[in-house]
Amino acid sequence: MYFLTGWPRRLLCPLRSAEEPFHIQPSSQRFYFALLSETQLSIWFSRPSVLIASYIESAKAVAQFGFYQKAEWKPDDSMIAVATAKGYILLFSVLGGRDDKYLYEPIYPKGSPRVKVTPGYKEEQCAPALSLEIKKPVDLEAPITSFQSLQEELLVCTADGYLHVLHWDGLGGNGRKAICLTAIPFSLDLQSARGGPSLDLAGVHICCVEYCETLDGFAVVLSDGRLGFITPLSSTITADQLQGVWAADVSDGTCVAVNNKYRLMAFGCASGSVLVYMIDTATGSMQLSHKLELTPKHYPDIYNKTGPVKLICWSPDYSAAMVTWECGGLSLWSVFGAQLICTLGEDFAYRSDGTKKDPLRITSMSWGAEGYHLWVLPTKQSRRKTQEEQQEAESSAPPPSSPRAGILQFHFIKSALTVNPCTSNQEQVLLHGEDRLYLTCGDTAQAHSSSDTQQQYKRLNLHDDSPLHHHHHHHHLHHHLNSPLSQGLSTLLGHKHWHVVQIHSTYLESNWPIRFAAIDTAGQCMAVAGRRGFAHYSLYTRKWKLFGNITQEQNMTVTGGLAWWKDFVVVACYNFIDQQEQLRLYQRSSNLDNAFASVIKLHSDTLLLNVFRDMVILFRTDCSICLYSIERRTDGPNPSVSVELLQEVSMSRYIPHPALVVSVTLTSVRTETGITLKAPQQACMAESIMLNLAGQLIMLQRDRSGPQVREKDTPTNNKKLLPFCAPVVLAQCVENVWTTCRSDRKKRHLLEALWLSCGEAGMKVWMPLFPRDHRKPHSFLSRRIMLPFHINIYPLAVLFEDALVLGATNETVLYDGLQGSSEPLEALFPFCTVERTSQIYLHHILRQLLVRNLGEQALMLAQSCASLPYFPHVMELMVHVVLEEEATSREPIPDPLLPTVAKFITEFPLFLQTIVHCARKTEYALWNYLFAAVGNPKDLFEECLMAQDLDTAASYLIILQNMEVPAVSRQHATLLFNTALEQGKWDLCRHMIRFLKAIGSGETETPPPTPSTQEPSSTGGFEFFRNRSISLSQSADSVSTGKFSLQKTFSMPAGPSSKGRDGECAENMYIDIMLWRHARRLLEQVRLRDLGCFSAQLGFELIGWLCRERNRVARVDDYVSALKRLHKDFLWPFPVVPAANLSSPLKNGRCRPMLTTRLLKSQSADSLLNSDMDTALLPAGPADRTWMDGLSQSSKDMDAAAAAAAATASIASGQHVPQTHDAFLSLLTNKVEEYSVGSATDLTESSSVVDGDWTMVDENSSTLSLSQAELEHISMELANKGPHKSQVQLRYLLHVFTEAGCLEWCVIIGLILRDANVIKQTVGFLANPEVPAETLQSVRSGLLAVDAWTATDCLGYKAFLGLIQPHLQQLMASAAAPAQVQPEAFQPSAGQGAKLCPGEGPGGATSTRQEDGGGGGRCAAAAPLGLLTLPSLEPKPPAEDRTPDQAEERGEEEGAYDCTLS
Predict the structure, then answer these.
(1) pLDDT of residue 819
(2) Residue 1367 and residue 1319: Cα distance in Å, rounded?
(3) Rounded Cα–Cα distance for residues 1179 and 1391 (Å)
(4) Suppose 560 and one of 606, 631, 939, 1306 were both cysteines; which one would form an S-S bond, judging by CB atoms 3.0 to 4.6 Å apart?
(5) What pTM was estimated for this model as a whole?
């Protein structure tokens, strides 16, 4: 509505004077302001704001008349009346200068096109020179308390209880009559006036009076504090013709202000509240409409300390009232009581350090032209203080003996709806200041379309002050941003900025102030109209169009407003040359000139104009409504339109005064919806007229009761429109109305509804009710229903399909860093900005429907909106609001709504999520009430598991943890943990480990914190393993983000002794057993890739576990199916038979390593190893070295390099690509700039470590040239290779299986990689006497099976099997006579026999730094970087597997595993 902007401006009087102005009075058009000080009358001009005349009374006259007190202008601005202290009225004539006399003139540079074109044009830009001349004074012989200007008369009230009526001109003897107040009969209403109770008015006088034209009477405040209204019963004001009514039960009135447009009287009271009265038309009594008062909720410390109301000022368009109190402060209210601004709170009242400021105290105030400014005179104390400070700040300040008078000018911007409430302004928020327009900036390329797939979510910034205004809805919004439905949403999310368009200065100079503004429905074109003419602007071209001929502009003035119809501006204007009212349409693209306009003459002045589809509706001063049809004509050279009068409707019987009509709208809304169900095309017809008559919404529907003519029988050109029925009142206290002419079958509830804004009562929606599935409607079910709801913003536009209300709000910024000895204005007042806001209202409407047992309608409405991105938020809000109200209510609720709401939400798939999110954001005390209505959380948890919604299930787990015993939550957590493992939800798994540990430790007293429900930024494994500890489950301590977080974290003690270790060990054992079980399942199902992911993501100690399972589950039963499964899992192609002969240079082993270096080395791979990366390869993995010492040095290097690459690579094979964390980044130095990138996948792509063979490459070999045959083989070799990532992962798994001694798997991976060295090495190990005979036997039979399979199904392997023939023969020979050894001999255990390298620190942590790419100085069995993580030691094997000395060794090392990375 009205919004403060910027800082107030201070106007200083150029005349030195010791007097301070204390009264300001505007002229009727508000172009001039009369300021009074004790002996001085000055006149100021509004734009520029300058002093133009001043009259100073002589000392002799002051002694005779007394000081000045009040002033009034004659309606035509030709005279000013001033009341003085001794009961005199002084009259001044205001004399205009001659035509060419101005105080200020614009000076243009030579050759400037802006020259004087028409007479009278220049005066618009300059302050006119006026002079004041005193006339004969009138002595009323009693102090004057109040006076009011009527048309030709002046009404003066004096302290002796008389009303004097004076003529402005004939102020001699005969032009005066006096009426005694006691002679006026006062009663409670006009009916009981004759002989009813009357007030005793002896000794009472009127202390404040104001005339109301539309009520034709005077609102008065009597000296005893009573409120009254005096009506003249005839046209002349005489004692016997006056009748008064008074308001019961009020006796502390202080002042009054009258609203002519809405027929309201606002009375200020000593209590600090403002009572707004209306006159009941039936009885003539005064009825309280509403109150304007500060609430203790918003102003707890000041609401009852404001003092009496000092002044009330209605804005020029009567849509808002400014109120100030004796103790200071300003507050702005809409006409029906919605509070817009108050300076008694927040930044206006407090400095940034929290100290309280003195509120600004005001002696007089007045609105400027069109409400763009508020002129304020501060009281002496306020002013003196600021002025002295100002003078200290200003070096050129005048001496304190002569302070200059200060006027404060506050700047406002206002909604275009206040004066031009046309339909095209309804879905766009358009505000206008005195020289600029503010509009909501959607994307200019997006045109609004009503179809769902292209809907633009313009201007979206959700706002709600409920506790749910948490991160929550943003998560849902982001979540839906990729759906085609909300393409426009991503660019407009949280978008608080305005598109500000500066109004063209040439137009503004001569036509200030801007009176009307309109925007088209697409939000791309604006039009503004000032004093004369109009101009329009396009966002496409970013240009203004003005009249080319200035005479045409100056010869018209817009009277009834303007609107857009397609690309035409529709203007209701008055033509000064023809002296006639006209309706004109100008095309946007052609020049702004009357030659291109379509002009229709009108018979009466237009007050309001609106457009509906192809119709224009006009409301005229004779209280009639005219409907015109518009049609585009294509016959002429220029695009033009033909306009035809369709219908005239006279409303004079219903409208007492034409100025009372606030808005007029054509709409397709009608009470009867049954017809529109069968024939939806009729829904788009102009069915009814909505008229806002002084806040009463009146509806005129078409009368269908007469004989209906079938449409196809009548020719189209003479189709007669149906007449209208008698009007019906739909609602009271209406400020704005919104309706749309679009239709959409899916969202009929929202598009066929009528939206009303009702001030302090919030909003109302008049919504249609539809029978379901075309059933016959119930006879008792009304066709429409009016639902009220409250929102927290002032509504300026409604997005119908999007179920959003758009508004604006004042925000403030403090700049009190400017403090010092002096506080300038900028420090006293915060800087004001206007921000866009929006609010969801759907949950209010659904709730109102449920309260009224209209669940079916609520369901239809909710289903039509289920695709909205914030629909989950709507559901949560609904549950939350009802829950808070009912669960915290003091009295028992007879008919609780929560069970109904819960039942309603179960209709939607979001049910489980909505309930848990709502519970997590509500305090624990209300949970029992909530779950009593929605169901047991255990059942809901199980439903989540069945629906595979694990994240929601995890949230329920936290609720169970608080509501149930630990055993129950452990049981459910185990279920969830197993499911998460199965589905590879690693993030969730890590949290479940911590959760289970927390339950086990018994620390379940404190409820967990609320999670943020945003998508997890998974920490990957880096941070996870900073604190290495004995069992994997303790390594989970440091993870901090994810789907939900618990406060139960443990830091392991550094020493071996710690309390409660037994319980914890049991807990860790419990978790480890589950992990072992999962690993066993993966291995049994030959899911090696999943096993790798599992180990990397959860830090599972794979090598140690495989060592124990070597002769159990880590055996391979079917080599062929395992080989096939690996091909499939790692997307590895089966080899193809090469076309060339097999005796190629590739066999000699020289070419492949060289190729690797040549083709794939993006950066010398040595630098990767030389960097600090190898500090990542610290921990010595536990492995039995007795038979593995035969590993060749090159193989060690190969594994180390592969591990380094694998570490960076393979986590990407999991579902989440983690964010990098500092624990990881610190491992990289600047040397490897290329690798320190955001995600692990990038790292592998730039990494050149393809496989381990590059360590055998001599740097010089890269200069070898390749022959044709070699090239062919290289390309063949590349075709037979799988993805680079798979290769890295396979190499890594090969390393793991070699370390763990699972030689059968090594053979299979060697086969799939077709690496002869691997086979050779493995065969070498198999020859070791300690390898069990079964293994040897298994490898032998497996290879024979593979050989048989390749012969029939996969000939590509034949070549490779041929290549490794000698090794296989060696294997067959050793298999014939296996060595007999006990299986226990190589059961490795955790701490045993790990040989420490030189430079290794205590606890198995290597701190060696390698200086070259060779392999010297690293542990022989350096554990790999557990797929992106630093692996912890293996889980403890069962105690019976360990010998006493092993256990002892383990005991020494316990607790010492905090591995610090150097």
Answers:
(1) 53
(2) 7
(3) 12
(4) 606
(5) 0.76
